[in-house]
Design goal:
alpha+beta, seven-stranded mixed sheet, globular
C-alpha cells in the first residue's frame, strides 16, 4: 500500500486556503455562500451546450449543488439545477474536500449567478476583444522553488486582475494550470510555506501515480485566476501538466468538457495503480466577428508526447490533428486558428545536444494537417514568442501567465541552426516526417503578462498587443492571414 504523507484536509491546508482567499484582489473572490467557493463559465462545443457555455461551481464536499439563478434579456428570472461531477474513488483523500457542479447555460441571458458569485452568462454577438495566456501555476518541485509568496515573482493573480480590467469578450487559456507537485522544503518556507503539495509521499512504488489535490488546484488556478474568470467565459486547453500521471484528476474534475470527471483516476489504489493515457476528441467553436465573418477555433488536446523526439505517442496524436484538420476546412467568411498547449513550432531552452525546437511529437503529428489555419496558438514555453516558418501558419506562444521561465536570458531562446524535425546536424529526426525549413522570423520576449487580440477591418487581419503585468504594451504585432510581424 502507499505511504500517506499527510492529510490534505489538515490544518495547514485549511489555513493556507483561507490565507489565499484573503490575499486575492478584492474583485477576485467572494465569501463562500451556500458552500460555493469558486465559479466560472467554460466555452464548450455546441454538441455539449447549444449556447457554447457551461457554468461550473466548486463546492465543499457534502454541500448539495446550488441552483443557477438566471435573468434573460427580457428580465425574466429563472433557476435551474446543477449536476455534480465527482472525482474517482481511487483518488482518495487528495480530492476529498471539494466537488464540482455543472450546468449548461441557455442563449439569451443577461446575467447568471451561483451562490454569491456572478458568472459570465453569454458570448457577445460580435467578438471584439480576446485575451490569451497560459502557464499560470507556481512551480514547486524538488529541484526548483518559485517564490509563491511574492506577487512580483509569481504574478498570476496580478495578471488575472489586469485581464479583468481589459473587459475581454472571451479568454483563451492555452494550458498548464498546476505546478505544485511537491511539498515545500523546510529551507524554503518563506517562498512556499503551507503550499498544498501531494496528498501522498511522491515516492516511486509507494504512492498513487499523480501529484495534484483539490486544494492545489485552488491555490494554483481557481483563486489566482478568479478575477479573470469573473470577467469572461474561458476556452481552456489541456496542458502537459494536466496529463493523467501529473494533474489530470483535477483537470478532468474542474475543466474537461468531453471526458468523464474520473477519466484520470488510477485503476487501483496504491503503488500498483496506473493512470490512463487519454486524449479528448478535437472540437471547434465559432466566434462571430462581423457580418459575414467568423473565427473558428479548433482545439487539439496535446497533453502527451515528447518535446525532443518523435515518440510512440505520435500516431495517437496524429489522429487528433487529422480530425482537427477536417474541422478547419476552408469556408467562405470563416478563418480558422489552431489552439493547443504544445506548440507546433516553438523554441525553448536548449538541453544537451538536442535542438531547441519543441514540441517534436506535436510537430510530427501535425505534419500535413495545418495548412487550413492562419494562426496556431500555444504556450508550454514560458515566454511570449512568435515563430514564422516559410509557407506555414504563424505560431503564437503565450506561456507568460506567471510560471517561472526556464531562463530569463533572451540568448537562451536563440534560433536553432536548422528547422523543426531536423537534428543538430540538419538530418531528419524521423524518416516518416520531412523536416521544415528554418524560421524566417522569430521573436521572443521573456516577460510575464498576456496578449490582447482584436480583429481589424479586413478578414484575416488582427492586431495583437503583448502586455506585461501592469497592462503596458511591450510589443505590437499585426497578423495578415498566415503572416505576423511585430514592432
Amino acid at each position: 500500500m502507499f505511504t500517506r504523507g499527510r492529510s490534505i484536509v489538515g490544518f495547514t491546508s485549511v489555513v493556507l486556503l483561507a490565507a489565499l482567499v484573503a490575499a486575492a484582489p478584492a474583485s477576485a473572490t467572494a465569501a463562500p455562500v451556500g458552500g460555493v467557493v469558486a465559479a466560472y463559465t467554460l466555452v464548450v462545443p455546441s454538441s455539449i451546450a447549444k449556447s457554447n457555455l457551461q457554468v461550473r461551481a466548486v463546492v465543499a464536499n457534502g454541500i448539495p449543488c446550488p441552483k443557477v439563478k438566471k435573468i434573460n434579456a427580457a428580465g425574466r428570472r429563472t433557476e435551474s439545477p446543477m449536476k455534480m461531477r465527482v472525482p474517482g474513488a481511487t483518488t482518495g483523500s487528495a480530492f476529498s474536500s471539494l466537488r464540482v457542479c455543472q450546468a449548461n447555460l441557455p442563449s439569451g441571458l443577461s446575467s447568471a449567478r451561483v451562490g454569491a458569485i456572478t458568472v459570465p452568462a453569454a458570448l457577445k454577438s460580435k467578438i471584439d476583444r480576446i485575451v490569451a495566456l497560459g502557464d499560470v501555476g507556481c512551480r514547486v518541485t524538488p529541484s526548483q522553488i518559485q517564490n509563491c509568496s511574492n506577487p512580483d515573482a509569481w504574478p498570476a493573480a496580478k495578471i488575472a486582475h489586469r485581464i479583468a480590467s481589459e473587459r475581454p469578450d472571451v479568454i483563451f487559456f492555452t494550458g498548464d494550470f498546476l505546478y505544485r507537485e511537491a511539498d515545500c522544503p523546510a529551507a524554503e518556507l518563506a517562498k512556499c510555506g503551507g503550499s498544498p503539495g501531494p496528498a501522498f509521499n511522491p515516492e516511486p512504488g509507494k504512492s498513487p501515480p499523480f501529484a495534484d489535490t483539490d486544494y492545489s488546484w485552488m491555490a494554483d488556478a481557481l483563486i489566482p485566476m478568479a478575477s479573470a474568470f469573473a470577467a469572461a467565459p474561458i476556452l481552456a486547453a489541456r496542458g502537459n501538466h494536466e496529463f493523467c500521471g501529473h494533474s489530470g484528476n483535477g483537470w478532468m474534475l474542474f475543466f474537461e468538457t468531453q471526458l468523464k470527471a474520473d477519466a484520470c483516476a488510477p485503476d487501483v489504489v496504491g503503488p500498483d495503480g496506473n493512470t490512463p493515457k487519454n486524449l479528448a476528441p478535437s472540437y471547434s467553436v465559432d466566434f462571430p466577428i462581423a457580418s459575414g465573418r467568423k473565427l473558428r477555433v479548433v482545439m487539439v488536446d496535446s497533453n502527451g508526447g515528447s518535446d525532443s523526439k518523435v515518440d510512440s505517442w505520435t500516431d495517437t496524436q496524429r489522429a487528433a490533428y487529422k480530425s482537427a484538420n477536417r474541422l478547419a476546412a476552408p469556408q467562405s467568411g470563416r478563418e480558422s486558428w489552431l489552439m493547443t498547449h504544445r506548440p507546433m513550432f516553438g523554441v525553448d531552452v536548449k538541453e544537451g545536444p538536442d535542438l531547441a525546437w519543441t514540441s517534436i511529437t506535436q510537430t510530427a503529428a501535425g505534419r500535413g494537417f495545418i495548412a487550413n489555419y492562419n494562426i496556431m496558438m500555444a504556450s508550454h514555453v514560458h515566454v511570449a514568442q512568435i515563430v514564422q516558418i516559410p509557407g506555414q501558419p504563424a505560431q503564437l506562444i503565450f506561456g507568460i501567465g506567471g510560471t517561472i521561465p526556464d531562463s530569463f536570458s533572451l540568448t537562451a531562446y536563440a534560433k536553432p541552426a536548422f528547422g523543426p524535425l531536423n537534428n543538430s546536424q540538419g538530418q531528419p529526426l524521423s524518416p516518416k516526417y520531412a523536416p521544415y525549413p528554418n524560421a524566417k522570423y522569430l521573436r521572443t520576449w521573456v516577460k510575464y503578462g498576456y496578449a490582447v487580440l482584436t480583429p481589424k477591418a479586413k478578414a484575416g487581419e488582427w492586431a495583437i498587443s503583448q502586455r506585461d503585468v501592469n497592462g503596458q504594451q511591450f510589443a505590437k504585432c499585426t497578423s495578415v492571414k498566415k503572416l505576423i510581424t511585430c514592432k
